[in-house]
Amino acid sequence: TILLGITKASLATDSFLSAASFQETARVLTDAAIEGKQDSLAGLKENVIIGKLIPAATGLPRYRQLTVAVEGYKAREVDELDIAAS
Length: 86
Fold this sequence. Notes:
Blueprint: H1 6-11, H2 16-20, H3 25-35, H4 44-50, H5 61-64, H6 80-85
GO molecular function, one term: DNA-directed RNA polymerase activity
Keywords: DNA-directed RNA polymerase, Nucleotidyltransferase, Transcription, Transferase, Zinc
GO cellular component, one term: DNA-directed RNA polymerase complex
């Protein structure tokens, strides 16, 4: 087991976007670009940074196509932009 300080631990993540949001932003982004890294956007922080739905609650793919029928209301299609705007 290795103990790292909060700064080093945050930079040791697989997500370069998450690491860049914490400290040493220019260095982290420069290194990621030079190395051709790709971010899987699996965490909350990365998705917030780029303005996407977070992978939790109604942001999970299985809930995006959920249809709820309410008596007296007409059903309509809801897309990701509708959800993000609310």
